[in-house]
Amino acid sequence: MLISSTSPESYSRLRLAALGLAGALLAVPLVIASIGPATAHSLDQPEPSAVTTGASYADAQVGDLVDVRIGDVHPTQPSVGYDEVYYKLGRYSELGKDAVNKRFGDWCEANGQLDAVAAESDATLHDPASFTCELPLGGETEQSIAEMKTVVIGPEGALYLTDGHHTLTSFAETADGGLDLHVRLRVTANLSDQAPAQFWQMMIANQWTWLEQVDGAPITPADLPASVGLGNFADDPNRSLLYFARDIGFASGTIPFQEFYWGEWVRDAQPVDLSGWNANDRDSYLATVRSLSEAQVALDPAAPIAGGFTAADLGVLPAWNDGKAEAKGEWNKLSQPYDAEKPGKLAYAMAYKSQLSPSGEEPGGEEPPVDPGTVHGALAVSGDLRPGGEITVSGSGFAPSTTGYALEMRSEPVQLAEVSTDETGAFAATVTLPMAAGTGSHRIALLWNGVEVGATEVQIEADARADGGAGAGAGGSGAGGPGEAGGTAAGGNSGAGATPVAAPAPPTAAKLAETGGAPVIAATTAALAMMLVGGAVTVLHTRRRRAE
């Protein structure tokens, strides 16, 4: 067999070429790491538009109007005033006396299109083409945008409502609404690049969340409801009382949770005696609203109220009923009975409440089934927190006896199992972490029809087994609600089992970068490069020896 000789000069040139190829391969992971998931996406994505949907929430900018499914919006307060919602539902129902039903007007206003001016006889909220708003889409004005409800974009593009809990809850509860209804919200901040703990720190610092129970007891973000809907909120009677006192004792302003601060003042300062208040009697309600609003306007504008705000900050009026006579202004509107041509808000609330059973449910039937998407619980994780490791996820506080939950690992969603709860709303599932899971922070989440109802954060450790190590990587994570990392490991609840889901297709390099997989790419490419260097040098050395 003929063996060609290799000169020293040729040998050197080939060795340099091999080393150059290896260097190019070694540079690949550095390029990927320098791009990162956010910048890599920006290379082929258009600039955010004025209307943003679904997958692009994380890219939304302040001032954007985002189309949302209201069941996907997370509340930032634990309670609402039920009577405010009852007023709206009364006016939305067959009790309403408006020429164009008020629910269409409220939807148009929330959508940035002012009021509704017409509606077909069979119009529904799910079909915006069946009613006409004052402004067309694209014709929004500064005024109409200012009146929209607001949202903050959180980690992983999650939506956190900062204004509009009563309106969206009313949409969720009305006959032609529900959690699948869509409406637009105005973005006031995008904190999607923050870790959950930092996100909630910023929400608290900006006073974009209300973390108090009705009695003033503090709560954590994990205690907040997962979705809007009356069944998810506690009833705050003082919050309703303040709603009906709007424009009589104070004016609505731009401070988030304004009426909660006033409600805190009512509860703690006790400016009026509420012991005789009958919230089911219109006359008693009116008398209490009057006493409260008179106490408000008697305050010094500089008087501290709550949360560091003064009476002036919270919109106290200089005179009762804004200086108008009893037969004029907002007090006159509120005082109108249901048999008037234009009933007052209290009249609608009382009329609607009179149709409810003592338990608060519609009469004439059993209590409606629980929507699993509105019941949030807690998760705890223990086991081998390494790629390919086996973990046990325990959950409690979810909808009882329910099949069809999806257990996912995020950031890049990977479904781990389909989960069923037992009669107590608990479950325990043993699943295997994806081999492609990168090291670092991830979230284990439970979803119902795409709505997150529970989540906790876990730390995926490097797999020492890949280097021949034998150490165990067991770990745990604490119970946490939607959007918040958990603390220390919580004891799991035994419950219904889980159905494992088939392993997904291997992620692309871009997907691995999003889930912390860039180190895997770097290690693999470096190993390949070194193998090529070694192979090239060995071949050349052999040829040289044979030539000699």
From TrEMBL:
Which regions are flagged for Gly residues bias?
Answer: 469-495
Q: Which UniProt keywords apply?
A: Membrane, Transmembrane, Transmembrane helix
| InterPro entries (UniProt xref) | ParB/Sulfiredoxin_sf (IPR036086), ParBc_2 (IPR014956)
Positions of transmembrane segments: 520-540
Using the UniProt annotation, give all residue ranges assigned to the region (Disordered). 355-377, 469-505
The organism's superkingdom is given as Bacteria
Q: What is this protein called?
A: ParB-like nuclease
Organism ancestry: Bacteria, Bacillati, Actinomycetota, Actinomycetes, Micrococcales
